[in-house]
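A common beginner's mistake is to predict each chain separately and then try to dock the pieces by hand. The better habit, illustrated here, is to supply every component at once so that their relative placement is modeled jointly.
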Amino acid sequence: MVRFENVGLRYGIGPEVLRDLTFTIEPDSFQFLTGPSGAGKTTLLKLLFMALKPTRGLVSVLGHDVSSLSADSLAVLRRRIGVVFQDFRLLDHLTTYANVALPLRILGREEASYRSEVVELLKWVGLGERMHMLPPVLSGGEKQRAAIARALITRPEVLLADEPTGNVDPSLARRLLRLFLELNRSGTAIVLATHDIALMDQVDCPRMVLSDGHLDVYD
Amino acid sequence: MSTTKPEALLRGFLGRLLGALTRRSGDQAIVPIETVEGRALVVVVAIMTLLAGLTVGAVHLVRSAASDWQNALRREVTIQVRPVDGRDFEAEIAKAVAAARGIAGIAEVRAYTAEETRKALEPWLGTGLALDDLPIPRLITVTIAPGATPDLALLKRRLADTVSGASLDDHRSWSERLGAMRGGFGAAGFLVLALVVAAAILSIGFATQSAVAVNRPMIEVLHLIGAKDGFIAAEFQRHFLWLGALGGFIGALIAMLAFAVFGLWARRGVISPETDQVEALFGRFAMGWQGYAGIVGVMVLVTAITALTSRLVVLKTLRSLD
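With all components supplied together, the output reads:
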């Protein structure tokens, strides 16, 4: 599904921040991406959702070598990958409903065709009552769930989440984890970046550990 | 920071109007509507359209006034008959009138009477003038029919052959001077117009650029959740097209109203006693449809510039993301 071979990344003429990354993400898999702060988790996620291109090595996403794709083809490929950003990146002038519906509007779908779908998903993540609110009035946990709903609305094949439990209390973190596990059971491969060891201990799954630009995978 | 009531009303009006124009039914606009930068852009576009529109109108007025002067001169020639010893002066004048009437394309021939000549000379020679004692020439005005090109060379020959002391003045030297002046006005006008339009393009371009730049985080989000570059650029272009059109419409409307109101005042003599001088320079201050079309053209141009600049800035931002 996603394959990295000897991937390296450097910014400008600086040293490599990621070195010799080789790993695969299988369909329907669930894995944590972890490591100390500043180890490069967010940078690796950016490579995974093609916001960055590697300076060397091969990155193959859903069967495509990303270095050879045009801007439009990359955009189409990104639609098959859901991303939950660490800072949510909700658009403050759009309601929660409109934020979650945004990926569907990008696909060119009419509002009538997706309204019930969006409302159902918002109810599923517990935001049924908050769908007409603007993000600035939502709590951290509500923004997190809205960001997750936006990432899920197009039923992506892979979901990448950057510290999705970083801004919530332990109880909500457990609920969000259950939500990700449920998604995984329904067929979505999940990469969950976190440095919360207690959270990782709740799931028996591979851990991708980044340290000093190197990646080790522990099954 | 507190705002005054007119400012609040203007903000509210612009916001509601923009909202109504840019919102698709059932959907919220992806590009935020009521932003400080958007409102500022509308004001910049309106001011620059007004300035460019006023310049277009003024250039058009001066050019058409100069053209009117030249046409008026071209529509009239003058025959001058000097008294010659031993000749019947009135008979020579009558022969000159007959010669002029015999040329095709002449609409009207009118000889000044002795009384009219005396009155015309009064400002220079004083009253109680005895013309009979002086060899004062007599003028015959010849009006050319509209669109006609009479053979003035033939008239000149006939006058030389049949009328003693007659000469023909076709105002050519005046007409040529006016033609040169008209050309000068035109060139200067277009230079000023080009400068104003260039200033408008630059200021609108920069204002649009900064209005788009504040939306960079939004462009990034749309890019990362799978929007194609063309989709993002089109969303911004549509939004800024409306902003440009609204600003352009306000500026053009004020410019057109200004010319219409001045035209009306001039016609009703409100500007008197300077009305004569104003009319001498600008004709009757009435701008034809070409002038108004020019202002509409400015509006279309600034709208297009605003939309196009937004598209280019968005595409540049997206290129920097890849």
